Amino acid sequence: MEKPKQLHMSSQRLEGLGDGIFAVAMTILVLELHLPLVNGNTFADFIHSFKQDLWHGLLCYIISFVVLGIMWFGHRMMFEYIGRTNRHFIFLGVLFYMVVCLVPFSTRFLAANTLKWFAISVYALNLSLCNLTLYAQWMYGLRKKNLLHLEVPDEVQKEAKLSFLLSPVVYSIAIAFSFFIPQVSIAIFVITPVIYLLPNRLDKYLP
Amino acid sequence: MEKPKQLHMSSQRLEGLGDGIFAVAMTILVLELHLPLVNGNTFADFIHSFKQDLWHGLLCYIISFVVLGIMWFGHRMMFEYIGRTNRHFIFLGVLFYMVVCLVPFSTRFLAANTLKWFAISVYALNLSLCNLTLYAQWMYGLRKKNLLHLEVPDEVQKEAKLSFLLSPVVYSIAIAFSFFIPQVSIAIFVITPVIYLLPNRLDKYLP
Amino acid sequence: MEKPKQLHMSSQRLEGLGDGIFAVAMTILVLELHLPLVNGNTFADFIHSFKQDLWHGLLCYIISFVVLGIMWFGHRMMFEYIGRTNRHFIFLGVLFYMVVCLVPFSTRFLAANTLKWFAISVYALNLSLCNLTLYAQWMYGLRKKNLLHLEVPDEVQKEAKLSFLLSPVVYSIAIAFSFFIPQVSIAIFVITPVIYLLPNRLDKYLP
Amino acid sequence: MEKPKQLHMSSQRLEGLGDGIFAVAMTILVLELHLPLVNGNTFADFIHSFKQDLWHGLLCYIISFVVLGIMWFGHRMMFEYIGRTNRHFIFLGVLFYMVVCLVPFSTRFLAANTLKWFAISVYALNLSLCNLTLYAQWMYGLRKKNLLHLEVPDEVQKEAKLSFLLSPVVYSIAIAFSFFIPQVSIAIFVITPVIYLLPNRLDKYLP
User: Fold this and answer.
1) Is residue A98 a contact partner of residue A21, using CB atoms and an 8 Å limit?
2) Residue A23 and residue C20: Cβ atoms within 8 Å?
3) ipTM (interface pTM)
């Protein structure tokens, strides 16, 4: 029996859906910010209400926004190599988007319970699941050769693996600290994105 | 009288609108999740509030997200064959998007009344209408030959019909059960997406 | 003095922004729907709460969604002829999007005050402004010949003018009726979109 | 050692993400508008509640929408010259989007405290940060020659610099006035967008 004509199934629309989902997830983070209620008109009044109502929320907003930006970058890099999709690849993509869309929720939870172990754990788990589902999608794409439109150099494969798996490891440490010194966990949330912003071995492949 | 020069009316922008609508509908599902109010700091306290405030909402979130992902896949597949649009096709598309955008509402309704027949019925009706309006759009496209940019093999037509009509049938059964054993209806909501994830006869057309 | 090299300024990104804005405006309509609070478990209980909490909101949702769909269609048609942009054209586009984004607000206002003259007037004014700003953008594009990538036939110009100006006229009548028989105004809101769905002289330009 | 094959890293997807973020940020401005509660049915009743509940919010909505529209235009112009991206450029982009997404928040804050120095300062600071982060991205792109796909004329560079830095200066003046005559600050917020809409030296590069 003759093999039926294959559809092209370009990855462009999945990328478009992903860009839309990241855009909305990043933007609705702001809906979680509480308006500070300023009683009085002095500088001290403003700082007081800022600290009480907004400070935790704003810190979590900035961390989550930058983390989502870094994930978007990883997702975007992946599609430099992967140019076509199939049902399983799209399903893995939907799983990734499903945990990405939970980030505004766990950010809100963390902002409301900043130093509590359960909020730190939920947040760390959520970010780890984002990385792991994206990694699963990447591994599937690497093995299905006809989804690729560019060969993936070994060095890129190694560096990508490191990038994908670094954060689940680091975030597990954050969970461990949350039971004893939760301040350390928050510090880890602040520092981890910075690591991803340092120069790395993938930069030489970029313009 | 000479026929006027036809516009091309590529389907790309309708696809873009659809991707945007799916992205927003999927993302605002998370706005419906209630923040669990944890009283105390023990594991038992967290599990208790998780069960009380979040469990139903999270289950409905996951079901709806995966179902919307599968519908997006169907919608995306359709445009491998359909490459142009006209006024009627776009109107059918708007109807489809209108019921897709109701999914966050019926999800919220189901999360608030998980085992009630009316919430189950509204949810099942909503998902069925999504499938039926997408099917109407597909049937219209199939018959308007100049909207197609690729011939649709008979096998694809049959399999697509089955996929489109399976879920309204299954969801009708869920409605029937909701009056007697609503747990079965919820089980149907969980299992139905899994059926769509199993290998099927369309896979051989994909990369 | 030599004329500087002109930028191409393709309209694609403005279309992308517009598709995004329509997608979000259509989707957040659903956030305005109140969850019906059903007391009891009988069919009568459900119908009662549906009528009380949801009926007005759902009717307004459907009207607004279809109206926004028709406006999107007009906006999409425009870009079959217009392929480039400049600062003034983009500014007129931003004005159009500004009133489009108000539709979820005036829809919510109408749902909360369905038969009140002020809610009907705000809604009718909002929809009229959408049509008028889109018309201004279209007229600007028609006169700036180097924004066009396809000549606009006279028949299309006439029919488009009619389409753009029909609804402000009809909605003015709705406002007039709102002071005496507001039910007529609501009927006008229901019927007007149907007029746009009837076959018209532009259809022969479409596939 | 041989230089590894460079990826193309077209800027299209970053533009898509940005269009999505602007679309959502502009649209959710409307979620901040309070529904006026009209007691009674006379024209005076409506005007009274409009003034009390909606007037400040609507003014801030219009200012913010137009300002975001102008920023979108600047962002869009930038990508007429810049056609590729790298990690640092995308990171600067994420910073820009992060402050853009805060605009709905500071708009809401200004609407709730229209003549208070702290709300005016937060709003002015937010808009200034939008301009400064976009300027940083532009400066980075200008210096990384291989991100450009079109040479940037000196005149464009000068005019762009002026456009980017005008608003931080003007908004600093608004902050200064907020402590003495806050009405002047609001007037500055209204007038500044108008300056950007006047003809300028970049117009001759546009169609």
Assistant:
1) no
2) yes
3) 0.95
